[in-house]
Amino acid sequence: xxxxxxxxxxxxxxxxxxxxxxxxxKIGNPVSYTQExxxxxxxxxxxxxECYSDLGIAKQDxxxxxxxxxxxxxxxxxxxxxKATQDDSIYSKCDKIKEKEDKNLCYAIIxxxxxxxxxxxxxxxxxxxxxxxYVCSRIIGNLExxxxxxxxxxxxxxxEDEAYQLFKGDCYHKSSLKKEDESLCAKIEDEFxxxxxxxxxxxxxxxxxxxxxxxxxxDNQGERDNCYRNMGIIKQDASICEKINDPWQRDNCYYxxxxxxxxxxxxASICxxxxNDVGKDGCYSTVxxxKQDASICxxxxxxxGKQKCMDYVEESSRAIGxx
Length: 323
Prior knowledge:
- The chain has helices spanning about 1-20, 35-45, 50-60, 70-85, 100-115, 125-140, 150-155, 160-180, 190-205, 220-235, 240, 245-265, 275-290, 295, 305-320.
- Residues about 5-35 and about 145-150 have low confidence and may be disordered.
- The relative contact order is 0.05.
- By secondary structure, the protein is an all-alpha fold.
- The chain is built from 15 helices and no strands.
- It has three domains: about 1-155, no CATH class; about 160-245; about 265-323, no CATH class.
- The protein starts with a helix and ends with a helix.
């Protein structure tokens, strides 16, 4: 396992270095390439891959990479052109590589360079594990180095363990936020991580319907309530709060909606829906002060708080010349 992992490591680092270097080299005017220049690349003893990569990028033509005779050189060239041109059709070129391990590495390098986990999904489970690890290390960004050999060995030797699945789930979570694509959340095995993923995407897209995707059968009612609470506050829509089962979260939602919208609308009616007396009193007090309306203070249950509210409204009204 360790020898195989190190082989993956060596080839990937080799590929990354070539990716970085070849894109910075220049052959000449991209529109003036001729057959003689193609022949020039073919005759080079060193830098042949870089030469063909630059030519392919300039011509927007990945088929040039097929002129290379060695499989490893071909997939490095395909990867370079894929990164520079964002041409998804280049992925199919990896299938032309004969050796299975090299074919998988072709996908892994392209996926890692583009930070696209979906490329790894085209591989069989066992073949895709290194690809997932390298890409996820880049997406999550929680490792000192994505090419940390002990960390890779640990993951690959325990790829069926819960820790690996959590790592993979975190990767889908981060990737879904990057792309604002909730469909990636559905691929997370851990139900709690999946629920958090849906909540984050719902907030990012301000899409209430995504909260409904949270499975309450998996003991995630609390997280669905949290999703509704956030959406109610974001949208300044107290009707969303009515979807919440948990009284505390529902009160928090009403209070948040009030803070976000009632001040603008001078609407104290939302305060009456808050079940917690402290929160309800605070809501009435803030609206009363904002409206300079002491009658709203009368709705406050706590006597000391009620008097304080009335005194503050009177003082502030006098200060601005309303009384």
